[in-house]
Amino acid sequence: MSSPSLDVLAIAAHRxxxxxxxxxxxxxxxxxxxxxxxxxxxxxxMGTRGxxxxxxxxxxxxxxxxxxxxxxxxxxxxxxxxxTWENRLKVARVIRRTRPRVVILPYWxxxxxxxxxxxxxxxxxxxxxxxxxxxxxxxxSSQQSAFSQVASAVASVVAGEQQKPDSASFMPHRPFKIIxxxxxxxxxxxxxxxxxxQFEARFESLMAYKSQFSDQEAGKDIFPARAExxxxxxxxARFYGMMAGxxxxxxxxxxxxxxxxxxxxxxxxxx
Length: 271
Ligand SMILES: [Zn+2]
Description:
Layout: E1 8-12, H1 17-21, H2 23-31, E2 36-40, H3 52-65, E3 70-73, H4 85-98, E4 102-106, H5 113-129, H6 136-143, H7 146-158, E5 177-181, E6 191-194, H8 199-207, H9 210-213, H10 222-244, E7 249-253
Parallel strand pairs: 1-2, 1-4, 2-3, 4-5
Antiparallel strand pairs: 5-7, 6-7
Helix pairs in contact: 3-8, 4-5, 4-6
The structure holds zinc ion.
């Protein structure tokens, strides 16, 4: 079934990235009545603790806390997010299906290769999704081997799914706006979103990843670990909040200039 259109789609390399970088913003948008979604490129199978199934359950619980309308994970290998033609097609297919007006991508520089690669991959997928003559399903199936096509057909039959084309993936769509969540990198944001009212829920959405954030070491109480994580998350949110004169905020960067209608209504005090 094709999904109804989203207002905002956040794309990130790993389950729990969105919770750490732009979860408060997604929740705020949902509270304003917007339809939000999350696309995780990988499934977390390389994590030291827990497995991909644990992380799926946790991601679903986190999405519920953030009131996301939609969340899926692609099957790109964890720790090996590569900007390949096939991966760009997979992401472009999701963009056509979910038809977001705004896409949130990770910032294009960072320590973790999956993060900065996801940024470029996401941008190029947004571009491809708008190409009217690109038949994504055909391009994808010619990329995949005969063996994997047979395997996925068998899996679909086992799951009782019908083999029908997804018509939405034929309709071109390009998001109106792409913004970059910069929290993982030390760069000055071009704007921040006030998440003072969403901060506690955003923290709880991160804590939904129990396999990652509890039992840090056997025999240790979970509370010191949780307190330390909270202190770090809070310090970052306060830092970006202070830049704009609010308590907590999340940082973003846009490549375009801002457009102003009324200079007396520009937010954030200068002096
Ligand atoms: Zn990550």
